[in-house]
Design goal:
The protein is α/β, with parallel strands linked by helices and 1073 residues long. Helices cover 39% and strands 16% of the residues. The strands form nine sheets. Strands 13, 14, 15, 16, 17 and 18 form a six-stranded parallel beta sheet that branches. A six-stranded antiparallel beta sheet has the order 25-22-29-20-21-26. Helix 35 packs parallel to helix 37.
Length: 1073
């Protein structure tokens, strides 16, 4: 123990002989105990703890000094160092170790605000699972908030991190990995550094070693599988792909597999613990503050609208400003990582009187800091989201809010955590009224983070009739100032004026914008050079222009701008003759440090005598960063022309010439798309309707059986897929031709601009109807960028403002676009038909369209019964168009529906990607097949194969088929075949009809009714195959089977895990509609 008052004049609580202050800090509540002491002793005190004194700091003025990275750094002593046995990575490493620097340098860009767009669909996937679970609860069932938020955040980091689904919402408990992780964290937390501790915790430490081996093995297997699969960033854009492919720019090295393994584990530990706590505390505070809850819910209704079938977009999530304030306020009152361990780099003094030695451990106590009334006011202990209004954040000292750590050692995933939390809380508030039915009293549970303990609520579905309509749908589009490009002009003549574009970027956004600026400068005739700011410290050129694009990182310069920033702060040399402009990248979520570095660079350059040729621009990642940059750069070019007296049109907009130029000519043919896919010609033998169009229950829906011959040498197996190259419908093609004044005899030749990549056939003659029919998607929803191009090619004073109002970046334009285009699924062609005054050239129209892509169908036959041919079962998509303009028809399903016997379609056999989705080699193994609707397709192939096996005299195991449709007289497809096969004993048929009686019956209901027989087959080793809707049907089937396992005395989670691992529960599913 430290000597008496050895850190004078730092105050300290009374000590006990031999144990010092060890008993002052409880093992179950150390953070709260330290906060209580701070309330008594003030903003700095020290504790006499085993092995070392610990200095606890929460005074804002002293915290300011701790945040000086030249003097203080993160400390990993104590629990973090003990955690290294499980993972030695970003979270647990010291700053000088390569286990921190290499992954930090490689992964920073993958946690930028821009990178969040790539993670949004995966976050949405998991958040949808959470709200779906809550939607299916009965009115008297509780929600265990912390459990479900932990499941959400764990599954999200698993999916976004390394493409692994923990499927926590389909289990009673958690995945075994989670159990191992939790036990490891608890053991780490319970160790206090006491004598004989290892002897006392012998059993726990043995379990910890076993758990760590399990975690290591599981993650190593995932890494090995990813490397073996050949998947890369293009096909698997997750953190694992980036860690495998990424190169540290400083060392030139990649991460080895041990580093990758440890980072995966650390992301799971840190990523799920902290965010789940944040969401749990936010839910608690909203329930205890009805006014804030009502305000947050009103904002969500306004932005997301009332239709819960419309998934929130990335842009919508970023508009939930008040929800973000709620989350930040929850982080202020209970930061989930409430104590930040630090150390002095050298002996130093803070506050002018308190000596901190290099060997001392310092705790920055964020919870106490966040309740300091000198910063937060008299309501510091109360929940008030207005503490985080933009104005309040701007006025607050930059180090007053520290929920994510400090400086370069701040949490790398904080953007990720907040994005996930805003999306989830928004989706919850859109759907549910939250009820605190137990009048819950907050109790804190501490581990490496803090969470509410025993927090349960009810989540009742909101009544759609009483839910306010989102004003996004009602917004009246006011014409906004156009930000879209003007019609293209030729590239400016080369005048050779020097333009040096310097960038400072950690996350890649500023670097990307700088690259765009340099490329645009080249198109305007400048002689451009792109470099980092550090490359030009102390040597800014006086000839030509200097354009700087720079970000801030917690108010600190990016790594490749730090030297430049230091030089600029100390420089006293004159920079006369330097002509510059600055664009700053930032995020107003961090208002205290927003634009700090670019603003400082701009001010210092001017103070040192440089000439500002154009005002500093600001881009906010929470808003339209690209739009702000476009506005700034568009205004920059005329200023440079003026400043350098350039006479050759360097202010020409930075649009390259059109990708295509067009020449009309006469015929030949050849489909390059077919060649590119390796597709072969398939002749249609049969195309028949499977539904009963003459029944009393006719629905107008259609399902087609399409049988095709295969070329010699083309083989497949039951369970494979057919990838079909579709054609646009003649009606769509004729509409497009009519809009551009072409007839069927028109042929053209496309030429691509030099160095441009073209997806369409170039330099060959092709008929316009083939070009439109075979090569481009005519029904994709028009984007705002495409509508901006339409506006740029419109002169009509009545039409142009309408198009501008749909394509602007302001709030009214975005709302109008969503209401009039996105939600109505309007295509470019529909907009061109509505706005006849638009004069967009046909070549530009082609450039805007996406290439036509193949569609995939499960093969519904077996080559053993029908050699040389295969069949597909096609659900034909045809329904009233959401735009109100006639009927929307699915491109490929209707193409196949139109095909007649003797016609040729093109396609290619694709081996099933569903692992294990094959008939078992042992024909005696029982089968359980579940396939409603067209999900029956692969099982028809399986049953044909079983019929052939019987004809060969083979003995077969028992099989059950659970098929579902609406009505026995309407859409019971292949009914006679299935009944005949059932009668022959190839399988036992169980059919669920959802529209034929008083009660809707689904396949999972029949599985429950047949529970005894299903379990008998499962006990005999049956394989379960599920094909169809993966969003609702499959999870319901999985849950039903898991319930059966639990009722028979099994741990349902472990049972299902083993079924999956043994390939006895295999899936071929797709997203439901």
């Amino acid at each position: 123990m430290a000597g008496k008052n050895s850190l004078h004049p730092i105050p300290h609580p009374a000590k006990k002989p031999f144990v010092g202050n060890l008993l002052s800090i409880g093992s179950e509540s150390p953070v709260l105990d330290m906060w209580k002491i701070a309330q008594d002793l003030g903003g700095i005190y020290w504790l006499d703890m085993p092995g070392m004194p610990v200095i606890v700091v929460s005074s804002p003025a002293l915290v300011d000094e701790l945040c000086e990275e030249a003097r203080f750094d993160k400390s990993t002593r104590g629990a973090l160092r003990r955690l290294r046995a499980a993972s030695h990575g970003l979270f647990t490493s010291d700053t000088h170790e390569e286990t921190w620097s290499k992954p930090h340098n490689i992964l920073l860009a993958n946690f930028s605000q821009r990178a969040m767009q790539a993670y949004h669909p995966m976050m949405l996937d998991i958040a949808s699972q959470l709200v779906t679970k809550w939607e299916r609860l009965n009115f008297d069932e509780e929600v265990d908030v912390v459990r479900d938020m932990t499941a959400l955040t764990l599954d999200t980091i698993g999916l976004c991190g390394f493409g692994y689904r923990f499927n926590s919402f389909y289990r009673e408990g958690f995945h075994p990995f989670v159990d191992a992780m939790v036990r490891t964290l608890e053991t780490v937390q319970n160790r206090r550094g006491l004598p004989l501790e290892e002897l006392m915790l012998k059993k726990e430490l043995a379990q910890q070693r076993k758990d760590i081996r399990f975690m290591h093995k599981m993650v190593e297997d995932i890494i090995e599988e990813r490397r073996a699969s050949g998947a890369d960033i293009a096909t698997k854009p997750d953190l694992l792909s980036y860690m495998i492919a990424g190169v540290d720019k400083k060392s030139g090295e990649k991460l080895d597999d041990k580093m990758i393994r440890d980072e995966c584990i650390e992301f799971l530990i840190a990523g799920h613990e902290t965010t789940s706590g944040l969401l749990s505390f936010a839910t608690y505070f909203l329930l205890k503050n009805p006014e804030a809850l009502a305000k947050a819910q009103a904002e969500v209704d306004s932005v997301f609208g009332p239709d819960t079938t419309q998934k929130p977009t990335y842009a919508q999530v970023n508009r939930l400003q008040y929800v973000m304030q709620v989350l930040k306020e929850a982080l202020r009152l209970y930061p989930t990582a409430p104590a930040i361990a630090m150390r002095a780099k050298e002996d130093t003094t803070i506050g002018g009187q308190y000596t901190i030695k290099k060997k001392n451990m310092v705790i920055m106590h964020a919870l106490a800091l966040h309740r300091d009334k000198s910063i937060w006011g008299e309501d510091a202990d109360e929940f008030n989201p207005d503490h985080f209004s933009r104005e309040a954040e701007r006025e607050r000292p930059m180090n007053a809010f520290k929920p994510f750590g400090n400086g370069q050692r701040a949490c790398i995933g904080r953007q990720f955590a907040l994005q996930e939390a805003v999306l989830t809380l928004g989706m919850i508030l859109q759907r549910f009224n939250l009820v605190d039915h137990t009048d819950y009293k907050l109790k804190i549970k501490e581990a490496l983070t803090i969470k509410p303990e025993g927090f349960k609520i009810k989540a009742l579905l909101r009544d759609p009739a009483t839910r306010p309509r989102g004003h996004m749908a009602d917004a009246v589009a006011a014409p906004a100032q156009s930000t879209q490009p003007a019609a293209r002009k030729p590239q400016a003549a080369r005048h050779g004026t020097s333009l040096l574009v310097l960038q400072g970027s950690n996350l890649g956004t500023a670097e990307d914008l700088a690259r765009q600026l340099a490329e645009a400068g080249e198109l305007r005739g400048f002689s451009t050079q792109l470099a980092s700011l550090d490359d030009y410290a102390e040597r800014l050129p006086a000839n030509g222009a200097v354009a700087i694009v720079c970000a801030s990182y917690n108010g600190v310069a990016p790594d490749n701008a730090a030297e430049f920033h230091r030089w600029l702060d100390k420089a006293d040399d004159s920079l006369n003759g330097v002509r510059f402009s600055v664009f700053g990248c930032g995020n107003t979520d961090w208002a205290a440090t927003y634009q700090a570095v670019p603003r400082r660079i701009d001010e210092r350059l001017e103070a040192l005598g440089a000439t500002r040729v154009h005002p500093r621009g600001e881009g906010d990642a929470r808003e339209d960063m690209d739009g702000a940059f476009q506005d700034w750069s568009d205004a920059l070019w005329p200023e440079l022309v003026k400043a350098f007296d350039i006479k050759t049109g360097a202010d020409t907009p930075a649009e390259a010439e059109p990708l295509y130029t067009l020449e009309e000519l006469p015929p030949p043919q050849k489909n390059a798309l077919v060649d590119a896919l390796g597709a072969v010609a398939l002749r249609v033998i049969e195309n028949r309707e499977l539904q009963n169009p003459g029944s009393d229950t006719e629905s107008g829906r259609s399902t087609r059986h399409v049988e095709l011959t295969l070329p010699e040498g083309v083989i497949y197996r039951a369970g494979d897929h057919l990838s079909v190259v579709p054609r646009n419908s003649p009606a769509q093609v004729e509409r497009a031709m009519a809009r551009f004044g072409f007839d069927r005899s028109t042929h053209v030749r496309l030429h691509a601009g030099a160095g441009r990549k073209a997806a369409l056939p170039v330099d060959e003659v092709i008929a316009v109807d083939r070009l439109l029919g075979d090569y481009v998607e005519l029904q994709d929803v028009a984007t705002r960028k495409q509508i901006a191009t339409l506006a740029a090619h419109t002169e009509c004073p009545f039409t142009k403002p309408k198009l501008v109002a749909l394509s602007g970046s302001d709030e009214a334009s975005q709302a109008a676009y969503k209401a009039e285009v996105l939600h109505k699924r309007k295509s470019l062609l529909e907009l061109l038909e509505e706005h006849r005054a638009c004069q967009v050239p046909f070549a530009v129209f082609l450039e805007m369209l996406s290439p036509l892509s193949p569609r995939y169908y499960s093969i519904s036959s077996s080559p053993t019964m029908t050699p040389g041919r295969c069949s597909v079962t096609v659900g034909v998509v045809s329904a009233p168009a959401l735009s109100g303009n006639g009927t929307f028809e699915g491109v490929c399903s209707n193409y196949l529906a139109r095909a007649e016997a003797g016609d040729t379609v093109h396609g290619v056999i694709r081996e099933t990607t569903a692992e294990g989705f094959r008939l078992p080699e042992d024909a005696m193994r029982p089968l359980i097949m579940v396939g409603p609707g067209t999900g029956l397709a692969p099982f028809r192939g399986f049953l044909q194969e079983r019929a052939t096996q019987v004809e060969r005299g083979e003995a077969l195991g028992e099989a059950m088929l659970f098929f579902g449709c609406r009505h026995p007289e309407q859409d019971f497809i292949y009914a006679e075949e299935l009944k005949a096969w059932s009668h022959r004993g190839l399988m036992k048929l169980h059919t669920a009809f959802s529209r034929s009686g008083e009660r809707k019956v689904y396949v999972q209901d029949l599985i429950r009714e047949q529970a005894a027989h299903v379990w008998k087959l499962l006990e005999a080793g049956a394989v379960v195959y599920v094909c169809g809707d993966g969003s609702r049907m499959e999870p319901d089937v999985r849950r039903t089977l898991s319930d059966l396992a639990r009722e028979h005395g099994h741990d349902s989670t472990a049972w299902m895990d083993k079924m999956i691992a043994d390939q006895r529960y295999v899936l071929d599913v797709w997203a439901g509609t």
